[in-house]
Amino acid sequence: MKTLITPLQVLKTAFGDGEVLPQATIAEADIAAAEQRWIVPVIGRKLHDRLLAGVYPDLVTDYLAAPTALYTRALVQARLDVRTDRLGTAAPKPANGTAAGDEARRQLRRQLLEEARTLLQRATDHLATNKIRYPEYVADENRAARCSIAGGIILPDDGR
């Protein structure tokens, strides 16, 4: 499976120094799902395919790696907050603390999504000001430019 970034890049970019996780924590399928859900609707399928083919590597490195990593973390965070084994599913019990509560987990997810949206907007601003350099990007196909998001609800341009 081809993705814009690797699982290791997700771990290095979206997790802090104190959040040490094994590389197997993030699967390429997780990244691919985040790209499909959040990145492709904004940059378009044509540009995404070109990026997967290795064209415009600086665009990925400088503008799309960070939002992709953050969206991937937001996608898998709930899975990280519970453990499943042969005995079932349980919340982890840290040795020197307590597991985060529901409100802390919700705040973390909101913060991850907000930061990712902000960085993705930075990428689309770059694409819009460099149209000649990225002919595969079609601004009219950018779903984020045609709607607003208020409280997690997507609204059309006219605010309905």
Describe this structure in words.
The chain is mainly α. The protein has helices spanning about 5-15, 30-45, 45-50, 55-80, 100-130, and strands at about 85, 90, 145-150, 155. The mean pLDDT is about 85. A two-stranded antiparallel sheet has the order 1-2. The chain has a two-stranded antiparallel ribbon with strand order 3-4. Helix content is about 50%, strand content about 10%. A hairpin with a 2-residue loop joins strand 1 and strand 2 (about 90).
Which descriptors apply to this entry?
160 residues, mainly alpha, two-stranded antiparallel ribbon, 5 helices, 52% helix
Estimate the helix proportion, in percent: 40-55%
Quote the average pLDDT: 85
Major sheet details: 2 strands, antiparallel
By DSSP, the count of extended strands is 4
> What fraction of the residues are assigned to beta strands by DSSP?
5-15%
Q: Count the DSSP helices.
A: 5
- Topology as a string of helices (H) and strands (E): HHHHEEHEE
**What oligomeric assembly is this protein in?**
single chain
Q: Uncertain regions: pLDDT < 50 for 5+ in a row?
A: none
- First-last Cα distance: 38 Å
Give the overall form.
Answer: elongated
| Derived structural class | mainly alpha
Instruction: Write out the strand line-up for the largest beta sheet, numbering strands in chain order.
Output: 1-2
Radius of gyration: 17 Å
